[in-house]
């Protein structure tokens, strides 16, 4: 079951993504944002900075796997793992 | 947002201005004409710590904040865009990117040498067939017994004539990947490239890679993530340096124009007293000030590691590089024939400014990025 922290995490991540992708664009928490072609060339860099800045984690080379970043849920799981939640 | 400089930042700026006045401004036209900057200048930049300005002190750098680093690029760029180019490729594109994404071993091996300037670094992305479309590079890597064989040609590589370490971006089975390649790697040769319009002393070259064998430990960042991770980080760092350098060009044009408008008289009065000249100066002042605020804002956000800094840096580079061109064109006009002659620096600023709209992502590429970002949402832009 999702904890309150994870629910808040998901909402924060979604808010960031909507801002970068477009508020009117609909996508589910399971949908692959890269496959939908929704992101531009600066996006990967901005996303990493957002995660590091918001959650006080360091994204390492080993963390760079598309599956960590591809959906809202995957991003939230990734952060939970990084923070040892 | 607090755009006022701290005491330390003001001290840095005074120090940069002193250095530029003594060591750079009197010689920059000669460097431009001769087509290179001398080793003695590189040594002086290194001695001051400017080649490792933003590298942490633990690696021998100055550990400078981003706003101060912007001021360094502005002041060096105000006098000599070729010297600023060295800082762009060595410090911003390569050292900062290595600091962010290098392995512990890579950082320990290279950062102390780069911070001291005993090794210079260059960034090899562009090729004869690939510029704006970086994904179209043809330089290839092939894995062989835990090593990688590199083959291809990199073109327009700033300071490649003297660099000892190259980041080479290549394509292969796992996707585009960045490699650290030492100059003495067998099969690597550099051909100097003369005849460039601006930043003529930036010692451009073409890097030829023929079966260059590099160990897997020299992969920079994650294999297959060369574009999203390494090139994006490097170009973002480089754009900040070029934005501030462009601001420096604009300021040079403005300051020299004011001086000339005071000293030159036509129709019985100094140029400064003609209304159309006042208009030119006002437009230049407003543009320089706007570029300065965009650069300062980008630096402030970079220091805070706020993710909006990426688009704000792009915006600063876009505006400042165009501003430098507009200011240089006005400065040439205001100086008349003298503005067209190489006895003054104005013609150099004019030529150097052109380059600023092409490097680190051309004006058109910035337009695409800024428009797409803005259409998705103006939150991070305005
Ligand atoms: C002085 C100098 C120093 C340099 N130093 C380096 C270096 O150190 N390392 C390195 O890797 N490279 C370096 N470069 C190369 C530089 O990065 C490229 O010149 C730049 O990326 C543009 O590529 P291009 O010249 O091939 O132009 P092209 O990509 O062929 O573009 C030509 C024109 O078409 C426009 N254009 C391209 N695509 C589009 C589009 N989709 N929509 C609209 N317009 C478009 C461009 O804006 C440009 O005006 C340097 C270049 C110069 C001039």
UniProtKB/TrEMBL annotation, chain A:
InterPro entries, sorted: ACP-like_sf, PP-bd_ACP
Any Pfam family matching the protein: PP-binding
SUPFAM superfamilies assigned to the protein according to its UniProt record, in alphabetical order: ACP-like (SSF47336)
All copies of domain Carrier, residue ranges: 4-83
Superkingdom, natural source: Bacteria
The protein's name in its UniProt record: Acyl carrier protein
Organism: Taibaiella chishuiensis
Automatic annotation (TrEMBL), chain B:
Record-annotated Acyl-CoA dehydrogenase/oxidase N-terminal domain positions: 6-117
Any one GO MF annotation of this record: flavin adenine dinucleotide binding
Top-level taxon of the source organism: Bacteria
Keyword terms of this UniProt record: FAD, Flavoprotein, Membrane, Oxidoreductase, Transmembrane, Transmembrane helix
Pfam families: Acyl-CoA_dh_1, Acyl-CoA_dh_M, Acyl-CoA_dh_N
Membrane-spanning segments: 162-181
Protein name as annotated: Acyl-CoA dehydrogenase
Organism: Taibaiella chishuiensis
Highest classification ranks of the organism: Bacteria, Pseudomonadati, Bacteroidota, Chitinophagia, Chitinophagales
